[in-house]
Amino acid sequence: MQLHDVWFVLIAVLWIGYFFLEGFDFGVGVLTKLLARDRTEKRVLINTIGPVWDGNEVWLLTAGGATFAAFPDWYATLFSGFYLPLLLILVCLIIRGVAFEYRHKRPEDRWQTNWEHAIFWTSLIPAFLWGVAFANIVRGVKIDQDMEYVGTLFDLLNVYSVLGGLVTLTLFTFHGAVFASLKTVGDIRERSRALATRLGAVTAVLALVFLVWTQVSRGDGKSLIAMIVAVVALVAALAFNLAGREGWSFALSGVTIAAAVAMLFLTLFPNVMPSSLNDAWNLTVTNASSSPYTLKIMTWCAAVATPLVLLYQGWTYWVFRKRIGTQHIVDVH
Hints:
The protein has a domain at 3-182 and 270-296. The protein is 75% helix and 2% strand. The longest helix has 32 residues, at 3-34. By secondary structure, it is an all-alpha fold. The chain is globular. Its main location: membrane. Belongs to the cytochrome ubiquinol oxidase subunit 2 family. It is a multi-pass membrane protein. The chain crosses the membrane at residues 6-36, 82-99, 119-139, 159-182, 194-213, 225-243, 250-269, 297-320.
């Protein structure tokens, strides 16, 4: 295996980590409207992700940085062709972070309501757009012989990509509902489990259609295995949720996300961004990568930094592992 192949795998792992962790963040943000009945319950939901949401976004920064360094042509084509959707995601992430911090700064109802709206929409929009973006990458976009995207914004809005967006939105919301039931006590915990069951059923239908479509159009034996793992894990997550085993349900919903993302990357390889105009113009791990020397230096840096990141993030989750409920919210303002 060449170093550019190794870095393709590492970038896939970074995206899996990001969607696993930020997925339930987005889901909880959406649930502040779908699940919470009052401001106190909204605070409970927000507090379940309060200590970890910003750390989860480190995975996105690392994935973007690794792509820039390891595959500069992929990065350039992706960020220029998908400029508006990615800019909208970035703006949402900025506003979302501000909303978490500013919401409780003033007691006025209008102030807090506006920031709560911001949390909901800036969680929902990225959850949908990430699916649209990755579906288009797998499907192929208009890339010419100069590795430049020559399509339009409307080329990115097609039935397959919109379906991909609905899959990530429902899957992340289901993941968030299971996480909420894992991290809360009382009535909100029971309602989270009930909502997770309904969301999981919708997710299963959408995900099955999307994954089968992907497998039929671009898949092989390895991607088929990943698809089967994703489907089985999702069904098992639903079963454990019904049984009240939130820990197992959350782990398996995470496995669903990991297997689904792995399947997308398996259908891509050895491409990193296929061209829908001509297969000869595909961006691959070979023609889009940095020099071997650059990849070697990056590999050594990753070997040192990655264990440290995993240790401090794991420690954070351990420290804030206990459940919370409305009884722990003293001041609703």
